[in-house]
Amino acid sequence: MCYGDDAQAPAPPERAPLGSHGEVVLTSADGTRFGAYHADPETASDQAIVILPDARGLHTFYHDLAKRWAEAGRHAIAIDYFGRTAGIGPRGEDFPYREHMRGMDLGKIAEDASAAVAWLRERTGARSVFVVGFCIGGAMSWRQAAAGDDLAGVIGFYGIPSPALDAAPAIASPVLVMAAGKDFTPVEDTRNFADTVRREAGVDVTFELFPDAPHSFFDQAFGQYRADVDRAWRVQLDFLDRHSVPA
């Protein structure tokens, strides 16, 4: 499990006024309705980001993170994974995510993420859409670069490389790998994944290591990792700016 109920999404280095935000229901390619949470900056932006959560789906941490991205001046939407097995509803501490994980289909998650990408583009007009994911969502984010969404880039925090390896040759967008040195996933495995994507896909891959940080360090409640959190924000924002479509 990544984030507990006391977790707080960390603020970006500079905060702009928050615009509209709230829950929304999206529809995937197979007709499945699933929950999501969107947030907009008060001022329109040409950049947008889809957030893929950890294994528990649309935990309230990701509601907050969507708002933090909006305060960073980007349109954002966080999606849930379990519309097919759990319907639409809250994903709190008592949500039995492990039993629903057994029914997770990587292809269906990609379809849901693609629906979120399309929703952002249609609603905001953003020219540059990115995806960021956490834990299993980190791997799903990397995979999404092979889903044909014409993404400007994908970001994975402490992702598990194995679910994304088969997609490596088809990855068509720049990749940012955010690796925690004290994670349960060996750093060497994550570094090898980055090298594989560079070699097989030929796209730009940025590997960022946070040597002393644990899994789920991107959490305001972990005050001892504040410097890592601040650096993670700077790295992400630089990645978006470097890979956005020129106006």
TrEMBL record:
GO terms assigned for molecular function: carboxymethylenebutenolidase activity
Record keyword Hydrolase present: yes
Dienelactone hydrolase domain boundaries: 34-243
Region ranges (Disordered): 1-21
EC identifiers of the protein: 3.1.1.45
Coiled coil residues, start to end: none
Pfam families: DLH
SUPFAM superfamilies per the UniProt record, alphabetical: alpha/beta-Hydrolases
UniProt KW keywords: Hydrolase
Superkingdom, taxonomy of origin: Bacteria
InterPro entries reported in the protein's UniProt record: AB_hydrolase_fold, Dienelactn_hydro, Dienelactone_hydrolase-like
PANTHER family: ALPHA_BETA-HYDROLASES SUPERFAMILY PROTEIN, CARBOXYMETHYLENEBUTENOLIDASE-RELATED
Annotated protein name in UniProt: Carboxymethylenebutenolidase
Source organism: Catenuloplanes niger
